[in-house]
């Protein structure tokens, strides 16, 4: 058994890693996608249990969302006490450890190649559970995405995979988390690529699809095959409703723009003490919890009641507006809340309210309140996240009804355009990143370079050698016919030398010796002979081509030697990369 494990670790895993360096390693990525989905599905089950179990025992009535049945004093004190506890927790953490949610995942992808720490995952788990259990206006999907991405990234780090593969694993974790949360596998795939990665690639689809499906299977085994909401059969009764649907799209687009603006405005206070900000957010939640308790927690019970036409106009309008205000203020102040759940709540209640108005305007032609609630959910999600395709897929999977496609496409694209073009708002996540002084690079060139590791294009025909060699040692070096010589210095490689230049020097020297013009040299200094030497800098084996280009710019080196830690204080050099290699590779792939 020990011999078999030795064979795997010494031969199969290195080959597996090497194949993953390139962009076309579909079989290997497919295996990773499956593993990511299974792991994420298990993590999301534990996360949901950690939220639902205490609420089912603490809240009166049945289920885990009946905050409305709490007495007034408890409803008021619960979010304040929870916010104070969260504030104290965040206050004790370093600034970089406080970052959680989808925005943090995007930051790690853009600036750290998808590396997410276990500490970050633990903080997200605790804060994600605490926000929902303490009755904050919060969702569980944002934390779930962070957890899925984190555990998938940790799996890649444990396997010491190239960074381009870790990035793909993060996308797999995001897709699997959405799939497991809503039981919507297609939406998970599109969400990961449209919202988080902001790119669509053929190689990326296969592992992400497998991750999404396997996570859905894990959660279906526990929660069943039904989606997150109980949606009755819905259909658009008449084409005369289209003008009203467009009017609702404008209202939802304006609401989404207001939501993003409030988050942005409150986010400008991020320099203030975190304890003060989160406690203040909890204090703001108190009047909402007392007078409009539907805003507490995830609120999917209210969404289900809205879809089934069980709530009145003023309650729908009041709950939707209140959810918009308190969620935006809380998130802007730094409350570690998820935003996807509240977005669906706002869309459902506002859409349902508009549906009731439509029923008064044209009672003979208007569709059901549930129909407009579902359209509102898709429109708000598409507008806030600026992800129309992910919103449309979510709408289709939640309703399981093709009749929703045409009006869904109309309302989602219109509301997204109103938010982005009429009000100039970007995605909520990009807005928060910008508020933190960060950006998200998603140009085609950057995306292409991120998908490939240096291991895929490096030249392996190298030989490490000392700077000073005898003539016999120099001949021995050339006997293996390397293309490049990596010249060692006192602190590691110091230059890169074409082997042909050493061969030419030896040939010229032997000719001069035979003609008795010079004495045979006692030793050869590789840093002194005529040669086209290049200054070098290190780059890790896991690095992507984007990281390699950044290293070229930071060091002004003419070549990079690719290294990896194989033992404490020991680095092994695997190959070399020139800037021209990266440029020619990109040109080749693009042509």
TrEMBL record:
GO terms for cellular component: chloride channel complex. It comes from the Bacteria. This is Cl-channel, voltage-gated family protein. It is found in: Membrane. PANTHER family: CHLORIDE CHANNEL PROTEIN CLC-E (PTHR43427:SF6). InterPro entries: Cl-channel_core, ClC, ClC-type_chloride_channel. GO terms for molecular function: chloride channel activity. It holds the Pfam family Voltage_CLC. It is a multi-pass membrane protein. CDD domains: Voltage_gated_ClC. Keywords: Chloride, Chloride channel, Ion channel, Ion transport, Membrane, Transmembrane, Transmembrane helix, Transport. The chain crosses the membrane at residues 29-51, 72-90, 168-193, 200-222, 242-262, 274-292, 312-332, 344-363, 369-392. Its main location: membrane.
């Amino acid at each position: 058994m020990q011999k078999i494990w030795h064979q795997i670790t010494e031969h199969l895993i290195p080959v597996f890693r090497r194949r993953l360096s390139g962009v076309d390693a579909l079989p290997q990525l497919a295996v990773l996608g499956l593993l990511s989905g299974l792991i994420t599905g298990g993590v999301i089950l534990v996360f949901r249990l950690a939220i639902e179990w205490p609420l089912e025992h603490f809240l009166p009535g049945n289920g885990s969302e009946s905050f409305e049945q709490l007495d007034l004093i408890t409803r008021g004190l619960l979010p304040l006490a929870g916010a104070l506890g969260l504030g104290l927790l965040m206050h004790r953490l370093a600034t970089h450890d406080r970052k959680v949610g989808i925005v943090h995942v995007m930051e790690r992808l853009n600036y750290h190649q998808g590396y997410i720490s276990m500490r970050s995952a633990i903080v997200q788990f605790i804060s994600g559970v605490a926000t929902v259990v303490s009755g904050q206006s919060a969702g569980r999907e944002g934390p779930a995405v962070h957890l899925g991405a984190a555990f998938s990234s940790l799996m890649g780090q444990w396997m010491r995979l190239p960074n381009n593969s870790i990035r793909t694993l993060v996308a797999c974790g995001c897709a699997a988390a959405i799939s497991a949360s809503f039981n919507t596998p297609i939406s998970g795939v599109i969400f990961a690529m449209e919202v988080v990665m902001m790119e669509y690639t053929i190689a990326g689809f296969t592992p992400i699809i497998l991750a999404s499906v396997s996570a859905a299977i894990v959660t279906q085994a526990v929660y069943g095959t039904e989606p997150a909401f109980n949606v009755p059969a819905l259909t658009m009764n008449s084409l005369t409703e289209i003008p009203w649907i467009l009017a609702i799209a404008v209202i939802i687009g304006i609401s989404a723009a207001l939501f993003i603006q409030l988050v942005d405005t409150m986010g400008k206070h991020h320099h203030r003490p975190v304890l003060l900000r989160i406690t203040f957010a909890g204090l703001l939640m108190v009047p909402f919890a007392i007078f409009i308790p539907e805003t507490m927690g995830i609120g999917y019970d209210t969404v289900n009641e809205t879809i089934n036409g069980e709530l009145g106009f003023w309650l729908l309008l009041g709950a939707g507006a209140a959810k918009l205000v308190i969620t935006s203020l809380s998130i802007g102040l730094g409350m570690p809340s998820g935003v996807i759940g509240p977005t669906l709540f706002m869309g459902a209640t506002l859409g349902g309210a508009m549906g009731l108005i439509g029923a008064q305007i044209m009672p003979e032609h208007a569709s059901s309140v549930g129909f407009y609630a579902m359209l509102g959910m898709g429109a708000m999600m598409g507008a806030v996240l600026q992800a129309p395709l992910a919103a449309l897929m979510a709408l289709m999977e939640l309703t399981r009804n093709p009749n929703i496609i045409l009006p869904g496409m109309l309302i989602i694209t219109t509301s997204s355009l109103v938010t982005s073009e009429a009000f100039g708002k970007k995605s909520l996540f990009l807005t928060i990143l910008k508020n933190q002084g960060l950006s998200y690079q998603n140009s085609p060139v950057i995306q292409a370079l991120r998908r490939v590791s240096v291991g895929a294009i490096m030249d392996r025909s190298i030989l490490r050698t000392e700077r000073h060699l005898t003539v016999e040692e120099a001949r021995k070096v050339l006997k293996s016919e390397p293309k490049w010589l990596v010249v060692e210095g006192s602190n590691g490689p110091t230059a890169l030398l074409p082997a042909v230049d050493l061969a030419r020097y030896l040939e010229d020297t032997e000719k001069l010796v035979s003609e008795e013009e010079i004495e045979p040299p006692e030793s050869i200094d590789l840093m002194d002979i005529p040669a086209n030497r290049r200054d070098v800098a290190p780059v890790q084996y896991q690095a992507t081509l984007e990281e390699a280009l950044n290293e070229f710019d930071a060091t002004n080196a003419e070549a990079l030697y690719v290294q990896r830690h194989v033992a404490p204080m020991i680095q092994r050099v695997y190959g070399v990369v020139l800037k021209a290699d990266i440029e020619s590779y990109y040109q080749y792939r693009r042509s």
